Amino acid sequence: MPRRAKLLYTLQQIDTRLAVKQRRYRQVQASLGESEALRRARGARQAAQDDLSRQRGMLRDRELEAASVTEKLRVNDERLYSGRVTNPRELSDLQKENEYLKRRRTELEDKQLEAMMGAERATTKAAVTNEEYIVAEAMWRDENAELGQEYDALRHDLARLLAQRKTVLERISAKDLDEYDALRRLRKGVAVVAVREDMCRVCNVQVPQRDLQRARETDDFFYCSGCERILYVPEEE
Ligand SMILES: [Zn+2]
User: Fold this and answer.
1) DSSP class per residue in 144-158
2) Cα(70)–Cα(108) distance, rounded to whole angstroms?
3) Is residue 212 within 8 Å of residue 195, measured between CB atoms?
């Protein structure tokens, strides 16, 4: 009874499935971390928040500066109109200083207005990027939930396939396994192919009737003349 080729074919089917699942497993494992979109959204939100505190700080500085100029003007005016200062030189100096302070106050008011608009823009930007981050995070959570399920399923499948592989291996001789491993390395991971309608399923080369007959009756290996893989000839239905 042909048994060796059949066992190797069973092993081949398990290994092919294993290769597919392992590839997907590695992909899922890699995607399970944070997504690029989530990291980007978080970075944008942080940048907007940093900018907002910078703009608010600037606005505060300008308000303080304007307030101090206004206070100085108030004190000067008080002295000017108090009647206590009578020295003409001192009066003239005070008036000059007041003119300067008034110009300075106008400048500062312009700058303050600029800073207010900057802070307003930064507030809007911070709100928008925060909203975008919330959306990105929700999407990432959804994706992750699905991926997490797939990850668990893959781990389960891999464990089952590895157990099957172990069982099959117990019935395969070391020599056959060596040949199988060597052929897999040479032939893109596929060492054993099934014959269907008297043809190799991989390269579609016709298998001679004589080989088919003997493959069914003996336990020898027969090889495809096209791709040189071990042939597995299923029993006739
Ligand atoms: Zn072939």
Assistant:
1) HHHHHHHHHHHHHHH
2) 10
3) yes
Round to whole Å and give the CA distance between 46 and 201.
58
pTM of model > 0.90: no
Q: Quick: pLDDT tens for 67-104.
A: 999 999 999 999 888 888 889 998 899 999 999 999 99
Interval between CA 207 and ligand 1 midpoint (Å) = 9
CA distance 76 to 71: 9
Structure tokens, 171? 């019935």
Expressed in angstroms and rounded, the spacing between residue 193 Cα and the centre of ligand 1 is: 7
What is the spatial distance between Cα 198 and Cα 224, in angstroms, rounded to a whole number? 11
CA distances from 123 to 119, 128, 130 (A): 6, 9, 11
Distance of CA 112 to the CA centre of its chain: 43
Residues counted in the chain: 237
CATH of domain 32-167: 1.10.287.1700
